[in-house]
Design brief:
0% strand; flat
C-alpha cells in the first residue's frame, strides 16, 4: 500500500515539475522575442545593449535553475553558478561600454 501512495505522489510531483518547465519555456520564448526587439532598436544602442545583456542573464539563470536542475541543488552551487553568469554578462557589458568610450 505504501508503494501505491508513493507512486501516486511522485506522479503528481512529476506533473507539477513538467508544468513548471512549460511555464519556464514560455517565459524563455517571450524573453527571446524581447531580446530580438531590443537588439533591433539602434536608436538607443547603449541602453539596448544593457537590456539585451540583462535579458541574456535572465535566460541563463532560468535555464540553469529549471532545465539543469539547480533549483533543487544546494544554495552554494546556485550562488556560484549565478555569480558566474553575472560575471560573464558583466564582462560583456564592460566590453560594450569600452567600445563606446574608445
Amino acid at each position: 500500500m505504501d508503494r501505491d501512495v508513493s507512486d501516486h505522489l511522485s506522479g503528481a510531483l512529476g506533473v507539477r515539475h513538467a508544468h513548471r518547465l512549460n511555464i519556464t519555456l514560455i517565459i524563455l520564448v517571450g524573453v527571446a522575442v524581447g531580446t530580438l526587439l531590443a537588439s533591433g532598436s539602434v536608436s538607443a544602442e547603449p541602453l539596448a545593449s544593457a537590456l539585451v545583456l540583462g535579458l541574456a542573464m535572465l535566460k541563463g539563470r532560468l535555464i540553469l535553475l529549471e532545465f539543469l536542475g539547480l533549483r533543487d541543488a544546494h544554495a552554494l552551487w546556485r550562488g556560484i553558478v549565478t555569480a558566474w553568469i553575472l560575471g560573464v554578462t558583466s564582462f560583456a557589458f564592460a566590453a560594450s561600454a569600452a567600445r563606446w568610450l574608445i
